[in-house]
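From the shared-data thread, chain only:
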Amino acid sequence: MKLSVLIPVYNEEQSVMELLQRVLAVPCDKEIVVVDDCSTDGTWEVLGRVDDPRVRVFRHEVNQGKGTAICTALSRAAGDWVIIQDADLEYDPNDYPRLLELVERDEARVVYGVRDLDSQKLKFRLGNKFLTLCTNLLYGSRLSDMETCYKLMPREVMLELDLRPSRFQIEPEITAKLLRRGYRIHEVPIWYEPREEKKLSAWRDGLPALWTLVKYRFGSI
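Structure, as tokens:
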């Protein structure tokens, strides 16, 4: 069972090399697909120094958003399973085996890593909890963390979701389409340490996320 790790990157020159080293050290069969979303710092130069056949690097010539970078990475992936990995060190790749354990035992097809959000800034913590609550009310689910980065599923399942280019709406879109298609989402706790500065905006990205949940609940998928 080969895992494709999809890594969207934008202006992460300080963390991306350490992140790649952490992912490479995880004891599982894997490939790493990195998409630099037209970084304006030294990220692309750092990625150019990567010398490992398990890592493939691509670049957008124009910044298009995290969701679009994930779509690009997915289109290049060849593994049996896929997982999304942010490049900012908020998540620990050593948690992969905890998610993979459920699928290896044939107990789950889709597994989310659930964060403890107590250490998040209040506005982001409330925003995450609100969006998860809206997801549960709209779709009849019982999720604890809809916005989590760690979403593990078969590559064929993610491909069938027909994901649309976007910024951070990718998280609610994935969840909404999985639930609309009848997939049960299993959850396992993961390590999480939020960084102080975030690229997303509570309002600029929160409202589109809410609209995405509503749109895919009542519209076509």
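Residues 74 and 159 are 8 Å apart (CA to CA).
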